[in-house]
Amino acid sequence: MSSTQIPDDPLILKTIRDRQLVGALPVTPAGLGVIDSLAPLLLVSFGATRSVATLGVLSWRLVNFWLPIPAGAVAYVSVKVARGADRKAVRAALATMMSRDAPQHENQQPEPRHPQTPRPS
């Protein structure tokens, strides 16, 4: 099945529809926990076995939610560190990525600080 084809299996269509509806509820970010709990129940209610439903949901969450994080870190380091640099430069780039006070780029102007205006008495 290519990415442009609509799945023929009604089980898949019902599960996708119900998962999207539940995921639209703004309880947790990205439906974390809610979808992970509800999707296997939906799949089991539509006829899948528990083990297949659980494995399918955990695999889907791993691929769509957790794998982009290290891929983004690798992409960030590849942009920030020059080719052939030593491990010290890679560690510095990772430390910069993990810190909240990341340095500004050379072409960025620092944000102006607004002086405190005196309150009228």
In a nutshell, what does this entry contain?
The chain is an all-alpha fold and 121 residues long.
Characterization of this structure:
By secondary structure, the chain is an all-alpha fold. It folds into two domains: 10-66, no CATH class; 69-96, no CATH class. It has helices at residues 10-23, 34-45, 50-66, 68-80, 87-98. The N and C termini lie far apart (73 Å).
Give the topology:
Blueprint: H1 10-23, H2 34-45, H3 50-66, H4 68-80, H5 87-98
Helix pairs in contact: 1-2, 2-3, 4-5
Keywords:
121 residues, mainly alpha, 56% helix, 0% strand
The residue ranges in which pLDDT falls below 50 over 5 or more consecutive positions are none
| Topology as a string of helices (H) and strands (E) | HHHHH
The secondary structure category is mainly alpha
The whole-number mean of residue pLDDT values reads 76
> How much is the radius of gyration in Å?
23 Å
Major sheet attributes: none
Q: What is the rounded distance between the termini?
A: 73 Å
Beta-strand share of residues: under 5%
Q: Roughly what percent helix?
A: 55-70%
Shape: flat
DSSP strand tally: 0
How large is the count of helical segments? 5
Task: Indicate how many domains the architecture comprises.
Answer: 2
